[in-house]
Specification:
- This protein has 133 residues and is of the alpha+beta class.
- Helix content is 33%, strand content 24%.
- Strands 1-8-7-6 form a four-stranded mixed sheet. Strands 2-3 form a two-stranded antiparallel ribbon. It has a two-stranded antiparallel ribbon with strand order 4-5.
- Helix 5 crosses helix 6.
- It is globular and about 50 Å long.
Length: 133
Amino acid sequence: MRAREIMTTLTFALTPSATLEEAAEMMTRHGFTTMPVVDTDGKLLGLVSETDILRVPVPPGDPDTGVMLDGGPRTAGSVMRQSGLAVAGDIEVRELARMMTDADVRSAPVVEGGHVVGMVTFRDVLRATAGRA
């Protein structure tokens, strides 16, 4: 079995200009722990995880009105990790499991030609390997 057979076809991604609030909203609404950040052509630029968002201190101000006092970076592009695990669609699930475990990541984008075509989660890998010797 290969990654493309167990991946979720990408329907959601972030742009670098997406706010961290928008990223958090999208993650929680759709149950993602990590989301790809892509350019306008869908090319992978980086990844943003829940942890990346939570590490950014909340600036003083009033988040209800959007008036923040420090003016610091609060976008997906400012916190995304440019290095990370991205995999080809034809990678075997067992190899994918090893790579994800070694990299200590819970999800990875599936890329073809540099463009994100899906996401695979550790849960997808577990489902695919459950009961196999």
